């Protein structure tokens, strides 16, 4: 409680009181400042005040840009850590001496990533767990807290995509998409947030998607699940702010990435190219270390909601078609059917004898 009050004072100081103080001080010392500024730059006191405010804000921004929080010794749980972005984020964090806990249904992927991390003497644990199984998630959280220690970072990254239009996607697949991409985020947040609140520190990360900002043809179930994931994070962020909590959140909204999940999907040259998986994973880890609340990849995606708000919706839809976003899933192949059905890549999680390694 004392810590959160201190941080509240710190925030007020840095964002409101200090700039106002700079202007008032400059005004009070009007004649002195005016003559000094006249001598130097020929500025009035209020112009000098504004200039000082700008300089102050630039310095504040530079400090933020260059300061990253160390993850050394921190425990990071990554769902979907056996492949793609999850694997790359795990390697990045482990190289920075974080303790990585991978959760996935892909046994081979888990084993491979643990071995990759062990090869450079990093510390990693892996758990075979279906993130949609609420009870399994809750008992896994207890197990992790008891054996590895309190969790500092939770990255809700596991995801699935069908790439089918609304009437083509099976009921089961639509439900699975929601369960993995959005509902499971509740279970992981509910499992780990209480302990973070007690410690008044921690970080919840959601790997959402640009598909959570605008609808795309062939992605109705996926878009809906990602809109839900973004909504969850926005409400959570505000709930934490109301409690003056130091627990941080980062919502990530990337365009297509070359991990394999969206194989065949097309980018838009110059405006929205397909993202590189390694660069994306590294940028996400940096955002976590900087405490960035929202990460649009590429940054131009930050204008999507604004454009939808100010444009006639017909024009917004026309723009989506004109730019090729509507047709971006036309050649989608993805990882193939078996990936989600678990035929080749996954193991049954009923094999509880061997679910931690
Ligand atoms: N690849 C892209 O173009 C792209 C773009 C935007 C957002 N994203 C999001 O990024 C995240 C990572 O995607 P990726 O590209 O690395 O895909 P990926 O397929 O390589 O990784 C997803 C991982 O989630 C795991 N997973 C799936 N269902 C699970 C379940 N029920 N329980 C536990 N684990 C499960 C898979 O086994 C896999 O290891 C996803 O949430 C995805 O929606 C991807």
TrEMBL record:
<keyword id="KW-0472">Membrane</keyword>
<comment type="similarity">
    <text>Belongs to the short-chain dehydrogenases/reductases (SDR) family.</text>
</comment>
<dbReference type="InterPro" id="IPR036291">
    <property type="entry name" value="NAD(P)-bd_dom_sf"/>
</dbReference>
<protein>
    <recommendedName>
        <fullName>Short-chain dehydrogenase/reductase 3</fullName>
    </recommendedName>
</protein>
<comment type="function">
    <text>Catalyzes the reduction of all-trans-retinal to all-trans-retinol in the presence of NADPH.</text>
</comment>
<feature type="transmembrane region" description="Helical">
    <location>
        <begin position="45"/>
        <end position="65"/>
    </location>
</feature>
<keyword id="KW-0521">NADP</keyword>
<dbReference type="InterPro" id="IPR002347">
    <property type="entry name" value="SDR_fam"/>
</dbReference>
<dbReference type="InterPro" id="IPR057326">
    <property type="entry name" value="KR_dom"/>
</dbReference>
<keyword id="KW-1133">Transmembrane helix</keyword>
<keyword id="KW-0560">Oxidoreductase</keyword>
<dbReference type="GO" id="GO:0052650">
    <property type="term" value="F:all-trans-retinol dehydrogenase (NADP+) activity"/>
</dbReference>
<feature type="transmembrane region" description="Helical">
    <location>
        <begin position="295"/>
        <end position="316"/>
    </location>
</feature>
<feature type="domain" description="Ketoreductase">
    <location>
        <begin position="74"/>
        <end position="265"/>
    </location>
</feature>
<keyword id="KW-0812">Transmembrane</keyword>
<keyword id="KW-0443">Lipid metabolism</keyword>
<dbReference type="Pfam" id="PF00106">
    <property type="entry name" value="adh_short"/>
</dbReference>
<dbReference type="InterPro" id="IPR020904">
    <property type="entry name" value="Sc_DH/Rdtase_CS"/>
</dbReference>
<dbReference type="GO" id="GO:0016020">
    <property type="term" value="C:membrane"/>
</dbReference>
């Amino acid at each position: 409680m004392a810590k959160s009050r201190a941080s509240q004072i710190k925030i007020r100081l840095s964002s409101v009181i200090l700039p106002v103080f700079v202007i008032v001080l400059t005004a009070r010392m009007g004649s002195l400042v005016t003559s000094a500024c006249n001598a130097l730059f020929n500025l009035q006191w209020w112009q000098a005040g504004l200039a000082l405010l700008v300089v102050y804000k630039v310095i504040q921004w530079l400090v933020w840009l260059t300061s990253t929080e160390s993850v050394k010794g921190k425990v990071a749980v990554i769902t979907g850590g056996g492949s793609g972005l999850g694997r790359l984020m795990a390697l990045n964090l482990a190289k920075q001496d974080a303790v990585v806990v991978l959760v996935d249904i892909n046994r081979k992927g888990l084993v491979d990533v643990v071995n990759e991390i062990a090869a450079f003497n990093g510390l990693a644990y892996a758990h075979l767990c279906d993130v949609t199984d609420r009870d399994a998630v809750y008992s896994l959280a207890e197990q992790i807290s008891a054996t590895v220690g309190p969790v500092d970072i939770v990255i809700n990254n596991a995801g699935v995509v069908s790439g089918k239009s609304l009437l083509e996607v099976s009921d089961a697949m639509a439900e699975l998409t929601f369960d993995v991409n959005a509902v499971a985020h509740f279970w992981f947040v509910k499992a780990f947030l209480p302990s973070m609140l007690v410690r008044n520190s921690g970080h919840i990360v959601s790997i959402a998607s640009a598909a959570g900002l605008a609808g795309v043809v062939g992605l109705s179930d996926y878009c809906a699940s990602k809109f839900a994931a973004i909504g969850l994070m926005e409400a959570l962020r505000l709930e934490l702010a109301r409690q003056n909590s130091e627990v941080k959140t980062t919502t990530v909204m990337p365009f297509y990435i070359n991990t394999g999940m969206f194989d065949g999907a097309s980018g838009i040259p110059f405006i929205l190219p397909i993202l590189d998986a390694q660069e994306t994973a590294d940028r996400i880890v940096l955002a976590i270390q900087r405490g960035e609340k929202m990460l649009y990849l590429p940054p131009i995606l930050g204008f999507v909601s604004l454009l939808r708000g100010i444009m006639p919706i017909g024009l917004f839809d026309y723009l989506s078609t004109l730019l090729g976003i509507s047709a971006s899933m036309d050649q989608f192949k993805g990882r193939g059917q078996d990936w989600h059905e678990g035929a080749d890549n996954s193991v049954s999680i009923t094999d509880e004898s061997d679910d931690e390694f």
